[in-house]
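Appendix B. One record, verbatim.
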Amino acid sequence: MADESKTITGNKTSRVLSVDIMRGLTLFLMLFVNDLYEPGVPSWLVHTPADYDGMGLADWVFPGFLFMVGISIPFAITSRLSKGKSRQEIFTHILVRTFSLLLIGVLMLNMGSVNFTLTGMNHYWWSILVFVFIFLIWNRYPDLPQHKKLYAGLKLLGVVGLVVMVIIFRSGEPGHIGWLKTGWWGILGLIGWGYFAAGASFLLVGERLWANTLVFLFFFVLNVLSQIGALEFLNSVKPLLGILIQGNVPFIVMAGLLTGMLMKKYGDHYRKLLPVIISAGLLSLVVGFVLRNWFIISKIYATPSWGMFCNGISLLVFSALYYLVDVQKKSRWGSIFLPAGQNSLTTYLAPDILYFLVGGLGFHIFFYKQDHSTLLAVGGSLLWALAMVGLTALLSKINIRLRL
């Protein structure tokens, strides 16, 4: 994922720990809500139905992560420029990273559609092999010259294996055979489109805050227009560019990007920075309430009211974490989330490997997924999420760290 963890404050290269901690926290919550057995837990923890005007915890965690993707973009691009990278090289990097996220997102989206008879293997083992090859391709191998050929071979094996998995994939039924579908692109695909929109925009307009604000407003207006059906003339390109045309994901990422720019502008002057971020958060909530008169709050429909509410929550949560962690220097409590925040793609993918492995072997270890005890259902998912964050830390220590 797009998680450049090295951030630059003013002219100093440093770590803004609140960025890593909030990114890790959103991932932890994402793992938690994705694991919940919905019939057995309170409704405010899970996704709200599409036509219901409201939102629960699960409706915020993903846009909360999108917001953090945006925060890192100004630092990452500025860092590359300072190292002498050309804008063409950086744009190529953005394209490669975007394509990688889209590819992995589409593969994950189709994992449940594998037809055993047509493909030659069930969806459990097809998915496990896909994940293995993903890790071989995108793992950040140690910088050891004596093993350079070995690492190159592992990457090549991953590429060949992934191509084979894509070729043999079949969905549907005999007579109605299907192949990979882009659909809604999957979670990683959405991140990819949002990252592309914000990254390309920042690279184009530079560090002009007013220009990036206009880009944010552009995607916000697109979101409004798409909701009222004013963009139907673009239906022919929506199968490919629908996420950009819808505007919702890009304007959420752009909100994070603007926050990152404010952090660069004010540096360590938190007395100037925090009032601006908090004011922007409160304004976002007010706009969300106003928009509610015309658009229900719905994650499924990606309404502008939902997007603005999520931006408001993200801005206020981040401002609180920034003050606590980077101003007051009280960060020990958040150390548990740092491995996830610094290795987000590994954190997101590793649990799915275990899910498919457990399913493929026929084990029944998720005993807490039941509707008789809310405490057991919620507690079990919390422990699962904590275990997955711990797994990420363990994998990092043995040099298994994905990086696009």
